[in-house]
Automatic annotation (TrEMBL):
Gene3D superfamilies: lambda repressor-like DNA-binding domains, Tetratricopeptide repeat domain. CDD domains: HTH_XRE. This is Helix-turn-helix domain-containing protein. One of its GO terms (molecular function) is DNA binding. It holds the Pfam family HTH_31.
Length: 394
C-alpha cells in the first residue's frame, strides 16, 4: 500500500486537474508520463515521484507545494516574515516622501553600502542582507531625489536588484516581481542600458517555471539584447549578453526545446571564451563556470541526467566565486547524482551546500525536491538524510 501522503497528492492532482478543465487523458498529453501512471497516482495505487509531481505542477501552472500540501518554506517562518515585512513596505512606499530618521550618508558611502549588500547576497548571508535592505533603500531614495546623480541611481537600481535576489531566495516571489519593477525605474533614471538588460534577464527567468508562457520570457531576453546595442561592445556588455543567452537556455529547457538550449548554451560559451571570468559587471558572475552551471540546470530540466552530472563535474569554480553560486551548483549536482542512482554522493553534495550557504540551501525548493526523492529511494533512511529532511522541513 502506498503512503497516505501519496494518496493525498493524488487527490490534490485530481482536484487541480479538474479546476484546469482537463481530463486525465488531457493532462497525460501534457506531461512526459503515461496516462496509466497518472490514473494510478490519482487513485493512490502508485507513488508520485518528485519528478512526476514537478511535471504535473508545470502542466497545471501551479507550484509543487500546492500538490504536495507542503508549505513552501517551513523553517523559522516568524523570523523570515519579520525580515520580509519591512522590505515590502520599502518597495511599496518608494514614490512617497520619506521621513529620514537622521542625516543621510554621503553618496560614496551609500554606493559602498549597496556594494556591500551585493556581497552579502552573493555570500548567501540572506538574513543580514534582508535586515539592511529597507534602510538602505530609504536612504538611497532620499539622496536620489535631493542630489540625483547617475552614480546614486545605479546604486539604487543595484539595491533593488539585491531586494529581488533576497526575496526570491526567501520565497517571497510577489515581492521579487515588485523589486524588479523598481529596478527598472531606477535604471531608467541612471540611463544605464547594462542595468536595464540585467533587469530583463532577471525578469525573463520568472517565466522559467511556466513553460506554456516561455515565449514571453524569450521576448524579454530579446529586449535585453536590444538595450545592449545602445551600450556598444565591451567586456561588460558581452558579459551581460552572455548572461541573457544563459537565461534563454534555462527558459527553453523548461519548455523542452532541446535545440534552443544547445543554441543558447553554445552562444554563451563563445562569449565566455572571449571574456573569461567576469565578476565586476554589476555583480554578475559570468564566465565559463557560470555557463557550466546553467548547462547542468538545463540538462536536468531536459531529463538528461548523465549529461547533467558530467557537466557538473566539469565546472571549475574560479577563485573567489560566490558562495551562493557554489552552493547552487552543488544542489543541482545532488539532483543529478540522485537521478543516476548515486544516493550517498547526492547527500554529500547537499551537505556541502549546507556548509557553504546554510540560509540559501535551507530555503532552496530544489533541495526539498531532492530530499524527497532520496527519501523515496531509501526505505531505511540513514541518519544524515533524516537530519537533512528535518532541517529543510520535509
Amino acid at each position: 500500500m502506498p503512503a497516505s501522503d501519496d494518496e493525498h497528492i493524488g487527490n490534490r492532482i485530481a482536484a487541480q486537474r479538474k479546476r484546469a478543465g482537463l481530463t486525465q487523458q488531457g493532462l497525460a498529453q501534457r506531461i512526459p508520463y503515461s496516462y496509466s501512471l497518472l490514473r494510478h497516482v490519482e487513485s493512490g495505487h502508485k507513488s508520485a515521484s518528485p519528478q512526476f509531481v514537478a511535471a504535473v505542477a508545470r502542466a497545471l501552472r501551479t507550484d509543487v507545494a500546492t500538490l504536495t500540501g507542503q508549505p513552501a518554506h517551513s523553517p523559522r517562518p516568524d523570523r523570515v516574515d519579520g525580515l520580509v515585512r519591512p522590505i515590502r513596505e520599502a518597495l511599496d512606499l518608494y514614490d512617497l516622501p520619506t521621513d529620514s530618521c537622521g542625516p543621510v550618508l554621503p553618496a560614496p558611502e551609500l554606493v559602498a553600502a549597496a556594494d556591500a549588500l551585493c556581497r552579502d547576497v552573493r555570500g548567501a548571508r540572506l538574513y543580514q542582507a534582508a535586515a539592511g535592505l529597507p534602510g538602505l533603500l530609504a536612504d538611497l531614495t532620499v539622496s536620489c531625489r535631493e542630489h540625483p546623480s547617475t552614480e546614486l541611481w545605479r546604486a539604487l537600481a543595484s539595491a533593488y536588484r539585491s531586494a529581488h535576489d533576497v526575496t526570491t531566495k526567501l520565497g517571497s516571489y510577489d515581492l521579487a516581481v515588485v523589486a524588479l519593477d523598481r529596478m527598472g525605474w531606477a535604471a531608467e533614471h541612471a540611463g544605464d542600458p547594462l542595468l536595464g538588460a540585467i533587469r530583463q534577464y532577471k525578469r525573463a527567468l520568472s517565466y522559467r517555471s511556466r513553460d506554456a508562457e516561455h515565449r514571453i520570457g524569450l521576448r524579454m531576453v530579446a529586449v535585453g539584447h536590444d538595450l545592449l546595442r545602445q551600450a556598444g561592445e565591451s567586456t561588460e556588455s558581452l558579459a551581460v549578453a552572455g548572461q541573457l543567452h544563459l537565461g534563454a537556455a534555462v527558459i527553453a529547457a523548461r519548455a523542452g526545446d532541446a535545440a534552443a538550449v544547445e543554441s543558447h548554451l553554445a552562444r554563451a560559451g563563445e562569449i565566455a571564451r572571449r571574456t573569461g571570468e567576469v565578476g565586476a559587471v554589476h555583480w554578475l558572475s559570468f564566465g565559463p563556470a557560470n555557463v557550466g552551471t546553467h548547462e547542468v540546470f538545463a540538462r536536468l530540466e531536459l531529463c538528461q541526467y548523465d549529461a547533467a552530472l558530467s557537466a557538473a563535474r566539469a565546472v571549475r569554480p574560479p577563485r573567489g566565486w560566490a558562495a551562493s553560486r557554489r552552493a547552487a551548483l552543488l544542489v543541482d549536482r545532488a539532483r543529478a547524482e540522485m537521478e543516476t542512482g548515486r544516493i550517498e554522493a547526492a547527500l554529500a553534495s547537499l551537505a556541502q551546500a549546507r556548509t557553504l550557504a546554510p540560509q540559501q540551501t535551507r530555503f532552496h525548493p530544489r533541495v526539498r525536491e531532492t530530499v524527497r526523492g532520496l527519501l523515496n529511494l531509501r526505505r531505511r533512511s540513514p541518519d544524515a538524510l533524516t537530519r537533512m529532511a528535518a532541517w529543510v522541513g520535509v
